[in-house]
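Practice problem: predict the structure.
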Amino acid sequence: MTGTEAHIVRLSAWAPGVENPSEWSEWALDKRDIAASAKAPAISFTDSMFRRRLSQISKMTVQVVHDLLPIEKDAKIIFVSFRGELSRQFQVNKMLIEEKALSPAVFSLSVFNAPAALATMALGLKGGYAALYPGKDLFSTGIKAAQAALCSSVAEEIVFVYADEEAPPEYKCFAHECPSPAAFGLLLSRVPHPSFVPLSPLKRDDDTPLAFLKRLLLCGEMHVSP
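Answer:
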């Protein structure tokens, strides 16, 4: 029987230095740190011409959505990020200042919704997506948006993705405002599954993305998909 509660059916995650289920378990116990690195997943399941132009945040997004499979092809993606394609945007601004011109190809990969769009292209998902910046820097805003989308959707599942990439060196003076590079995905369903975690009890209004992820892992009922 369906309802208004969102259930976390599956979890995926990727970050530099924390790339597999056992490493995420160590991270949740404060035995491993996320590396401040621009390293990205290989996404070797995609075409080489497709992936060679992708940024760290786009590759991480494609990877965590892929790791949630199998998912319904009409499942919508709710993509949340605080910085989006930060490195690409820096390159765009630098190009405009130094060359007074901009390549359409460079611009098209720098827009905020690029990671979600590229994930749907890479995996053939046809449910569409929404790219959201959480209001007032509150991660809980993105979670609430995903719940609302799930409750109003015809499909029984929705994909929630959070991702932020490593800030360029030029932005290190704002390091306190730039979260660690990481991405995680949640397969949310209105229908309880044999193994699931209700989303509502995990929510806190003052959450950061990684605090939410750590609490989910420590609840003992959800593990990162290999």
